[in-house]
From TrEMBL:
SMART domains: CA. GO terms for biological process: homophilic cell adhesion via plasma membrane adhesion molecules. It comes from Macrostomum lignano. The chain crosses the membrane at residues 1053-1077. InterPro entries: Cadherin-like_dom, Cadherin-like_sf, Cadherin_CS. Residues 799-819, 1256-1299 are annotated as: Disordered. PROSITE patterns: CADHERIN_1, CADHERIN_2. The keyword Protein transport does not apply. CDD domains: Cadherin_repeat (cd11304). Residues 2-69, 73-174, 175-299, 300-405, 407-512, 514-621, 742-836 form the Cadherin domain. Keywords: Calcium, Membrane, Repeat, Transmembrane, Transmembrane helix. This is Cadherin domain-containing protein. It holds the Pfam family Cadherin. It is found in: Membrane.
Amino acid sequence: MYGIAGGADGRFEIQVSSGEIRLSGSLDRETKDFYQLNVTATDRGSPSKQNSLIVNITVLDVNDVVPSFGIPSTDAVTFTVPEEQSVPQTIGRVNASDADLGENSRLTYLIANASVPFNITSDGVVQSSGLLDRESISRYRFVVYASDAGFPSLTGSTVVAVQLTDINDWSPEFSQPIYQTFTLEKAPIGTVLAIVAATDKDIGANANLTYYLQGNGSEYLSVDPLTGFVSIKRTITINELLSKGLISRNSSSGNETVYSPLVLQLLAFDNPVDTSKKLNGTAQLWITLTQVSDSLPTFTAASYSFSVNENSPAGTPVGSVSASVVGTSIVVKYKLDTTNSLFQIDELTGNITVQMGAALDKENTSLSSQLSLTVLAFTDTVPSRQSYGAVRITLTDVNDNQPVFSQASGYSFVVAEELTEPVRIGAVSATDADSGNNALISYSIVGGNTAGVFALNSTTGELTAVSRIDREAVAVYLLQIAAIDNGSPTRLSSTVSATVSLTDVNDNAPVLSIGSALDLNVTEGYGPGYLAAVVTATDADLGLNGSVNFDLIQTDVPPMFYITSNGTGSVLLKTLGTLNYALRTSYQLTIIAYDLGNPVQSSNATIEVSVIKFDTNRPRFTSEFFNTSIADNLPPNTPIFDLPAGPRPFNYTIIDGDSNGAFSITNQGRISITKVLAPPLPRVYTLKISATDELNNTASTILQVWLTSPTTAVFNTTDVTLSWNEDHGSGRELVYDFATVDELLGRTVQYVIQTCSPIGCESLFSIDPATGQFYVMSSLDRETVSKYSFVIRANLPGSSGGSSGRRRRQAIAPPTTDTSSVTLTVTDVNDNPPVFNVPSPFRVGILINSPVDTLVYTPSATDRDSTSVLTYSLSNLTDQFYINLNSAELRTRATFSSSASTPIVGVEVTDGKFNASMVIVVTLLTSTNSLVLTAGITPDVFNRYESLIKTNLSALLGVDFRVAKVTSAVSDSGDSAKVDPTKTDAYIYAYNPTTGTLIEQAELRRIIEAKRAEIAAFFALFGAKSYDGVRTPVLTSGGGVTSTSTGLTAAEIALIVLACLIVVAAIIAIIVLLCWLSKRIKRRWRQLEADEAASAAAAGGGSRLYGSLAPEVLQLQRKKQTATDGGRVNGGATTGELEIAAEAAPAPLAAMELVSNPTYQRNPSRRYPPSQFGSASAVAAAAAAANGAENFNDDSPRRSTAFSDNVSGTSLSRIMFVPAAYNSLSVSIGLNAEEATTDEDGNPIIVVNNADSTDHEDAWLAAATNRPGSGPASDDPPADEVEEQSSPTESVEPLVNQQ
């Protein structure tokens, strides 16, 4: 027997008897690619002998690993690059890996989203394909795919995020080009005259602005560099400004004099890190001065500061400003600058309130927490007196935002079980858009924390396990975590789910179903392979940690048990040989169950096997009386009861109670009915049954069978297949008549359609509830539904089943079915017209001067009918084109040398009943309206994927992209032209998808060149090494259409046929000649052998072979030899002596003669090859036996041994072999003799091949111990067997027949 001593790692097992190595677990080359098994072979001698060898197993790669980018699928590869760089700009490299080998690990990259301005190279470098502007789009996200070159190809993906950083490319802009303000001369220093503001589209330092004031007179004013507040820096007088020419007197109005404004320039500079790139914006400031005598409104404060809560409703008071004209009673009015939309001011009182519709949201990023307003105080006098005041309003925070978790969809954590507490699981985090205490967050677990396993830090959000976590107890925890702020007066909160998944560690040993010990009783006499016990083990762990293997340890020699897997996680304990109570009464085994984890966990159990002596007593029933009940509508041959008189077959007879032959019984005691037992047959049968053994020991019993009324009907046919013509009528028509056993017996049966598929088909069919007649209610349409499925149920109304009141054993009859499955196939008729697959008119192009028979297009059509045969024809231009009747290939019948005309071809299709037509407009392509596209792939690859290429390039270019011709690339023209078969020249053209017009060459070239990078990347997917772009084709143009015939003349066809006939005749003549020569050589060879054998016999050096045959075998052997190769028989037929002469015997017998022939020894080249005959002595013995000899002798005495086998026919009855005479002669049944082996004692080991590699115990022992076998198996087992053991028939082909 065979075993694996080590190296299997639970992945391999070996068949104990055949030595066949099989997989017992899955293999993963990426985990381990090489196994070295130590295989042992042990004989069953006493003492047993053992040998071993090393078996090396290499695991080959399959494409089973998806390319990986090495980051979680929820994360993204992030690149940060500056905006506005030259194209192409290198963004970064993505790296994917594939654990497979060779082509299975060669990767290509692709960006599938054509809308993003990026492409990727073959080695994963992401580049920009357009100018990147942060102010337009600041962040891009797209998916990068990595595909391997395996078959089928596997693809992995990752998200790439490109974050653009700001460069200082925008100048600041003031909110208005001119700011106007009014003030009195000699106004107090510090008076705010205006608030200016500018913005910058950049961000960060590039958007931090500083304000400046310049110009003549700027020394009188100052501007806050951060806020833009313009205030008086030095006392201003009109006379001083007049004297300096900074202002002028414009006019006088009454007592007031009007002066021109003081004009200054405002500057706003940004503050980039690189100060050399500082940018600025400008505006003008106009200050109009009024003389002191013309007092202006004066505010009570140089500036005002107020605060208001965010989210305050409209009308909420904010504050009040006040101004007056000193020394007068002039009424001062107020208004706010026009840019304000949040606040309003009362014109008379100066009260500032929140404006209707204002959204005061402190968290709004477009608002500052401090808002600046400009208030204009003015009078209604002419001219109006005006002055400005500054108001600063601070928005105070209220708790109006709840905390927001960073992963609102939930957190997922994975941690190994059984780690030492406390175990850090992970952390949650949340933010609050409010500020101050309103934004302080506390965390807590509010649900799912079973038994307080987890703790959550209220400040940091860190989650830890504070007690033992055991995956086998709880594999997944679903926690609810809350975040609550510290706001006032109301605290706001939010919750999120957190899933904690525990990964398995190997912390559980397998648990055997038999515990730690099992006492097992096995009756003697069972042959090899008897199932003694089933042992199951379970392991609560997962994966390899929970995969259980078994080992069996036994110290007995020879071993008598082995285990084999049943494929369901259990092992079967079986016998290797036949247990014999007289030789041994008990065996002690140890079975070990171990997992495949690291470290390995295992458990074991002791099995005590007690051999029970076989009881050979007479047959005996377990009771004198049995009864059962069955329904009376069971079909014939239904088994109803098992009545064994012992564990082995007996001769069973129903000796009384079955007068009408309604029952039968097998030699195992199984009783079946032979007919339907419905009324008027008896309702109760009392059967007397006997069982008799070979010694006429008899036992008998009584079986009473009660018939009951059935509770379910029984169909005669449970699967019905029907067909129905789709045009078969339009009303109610009978399709099929169902019948049940019960209906035929006259019982009332109700038939219903239980289910109908497809859904909704119930309205199309009906069944008569009383007769079971099945109808179709309207015509069916195969093109809508081609097949219907039904389940028809038959009910027996009012059935009770009947009962005698006595308790009876359950019958063993299999459950009958009260349903029948129906499949109705709708057959087709021609009721649908054909439809072309493209619209009409359809435009297509061909190159001018294309040869005759050029394929123009295949305008195929479809027909919904399954039986329709479509044929195609042309309605015009048949002198220039023709179409294949069946394939619809439209080809040219002429050569078109000019593009002056545009052929319009009419195509028609018919299915024999319906017709359809379309128009094909043929564009003749020249060097002015087509291009040549050169790609670094072979024409075969281009043709194979032409449809895919056209579809994708049409989508990429926004045109109807077409290909007129595909050839190998030509790099030049004329004598210097070079053909490159690794590249493709595709002659292309395109139509406008909207108008259908042909796109001009220049426009098409422009469109293609604009997408050059994308096209190159697209062809790279097909393995292209280069993409050379497009060029103008070189096509000639002639003067019209030249018609050319496309067929062969009758004479040409006749010549071709005649040439073919001559070639065939010559081949036949050569074959006949070779056969004749072969026969002559073979005949001459045999004659030479006969001469040599005769010469050797005359010299006394030969050897004769004899065999004793019965006369009937002799007659059969004569026929056999005569039918095979003309063998000659010498000797008398009455005595049965047969002398076989080598020169005329069949080939194996000739080999026997040659064994001791001196000529044979002198001339080894004349020997028959071992692969044909095996060793000469083995061939001699096998041949003699195959020819019917009962014994085998030659000139010298030899010791012989017999080996018997069960083989049908007369080809092999007994093989004689002589171990000592011919150098340890071996006989191999089903193998060449050179492959046979012997043990240490020189005894042959005979390998017997059979269907399922199961040992035949007796034959194996006979061969191993040089004793005769037990002879052919009989139908009845020996008296000392307990029960029949199923043993597959051994199939042995005689060596003679294998030649």
